[in-house]
Amino acid sequence: MAPAAINEPPRIDMAALKAAAAPQGPVVDLRTFAHFDNTPGIGTEFRVDGDYRDKSGKPIVSLRDILDDPASLRALGRLVSERGVVFFRNTEISTQEQLKLVHSLGLLGGKPETSGLHVNPCTAPGQNEGDEVARISNNYVFGEKFKRDQSKMLLRRVGKHCWHSDITYEPVPADYACLTIRTVPETGGDTLWASAYDAYDRLSPHMRKFLEGLTALHKGLGFIQLAQKYGIPEFRENRGSPENVGQDLEAIHPVIRTHPLTGWKGLFVNREFTQRIVELTPYESDQLLEFLFNHVSDNQDIQVRFRWEPNSVAIWDNRCTFHSATFDLDDNVREGTRGLSLGEKPYLDPNSLSRREALEKQQQGAQA
Question: What is this structure's pTM?
């Protein structure tokens, strides 16, 4: 029997969350606060006090102002789902606050009550931070037991091979994630995100239509290899959802998925976990996946790059983004903690629109 995961979500005022999520609940627009969009398609960063670049005259909002206000949290979740990733500076956040934040964002966005916080299948029971906290480091994988050596340039992973969305090998994969780097290198170790919305929009109409009829097998081969290397007899169960059980670490998802909050279509395959297209021959699948993987890593216009500073926080939505760390640290250390919420089983609504289609329709409606 696999070791059980202690996966009790943090204490949350459910009555307040339900009131904020109700149609008649209070409405907060975080764009009334000082901010800037990192790129046209992905990434929004909120200004901090004393930022000489801000000429908007808008008030400053910090993540701490948002954490205990359900209406503001709801607005934050919506913004993250629209922009893919949102950044805050000068924000100290505990690991328990990270967990509470992502779980609250998911609940406010309507995720099933059975979806909690993810527990990595290789997480050692009883780690100090708790089962649901992922330790992120350039020196090890989710725990000091799992060492990796990238101290020399020739040992570094090839950049395009690092792009992924979190835990897509699970039947119920992730929605929101929150990462803070607690040991910040003087330079290097940036994180990049890419928009799944823009990856879809950048495909030709005929390619989009073709992909919408396909599904893909996702598998956690890296964790399976870790377990074999370090003698882990069984993976943790359940991993945050009653459906995230089993030792195969695999799931089948649509190649194009509809985001349940925005209603926009996005590409949903990634080099780290997607193994094959179910409906195609192995050769066809390999060729198509290689094109799609490169489509994400090669197009800089759908990406944003974030440089970490002490007390920086990034919050992203795995349903509409891909991300990759930059392995350029040599002997420097980059370590942090991540909280990861589980969402819903991915699906495609054939009547849903792309991001650009939806925004154009919205603009036309405003002008009518």
Answer: 0.92
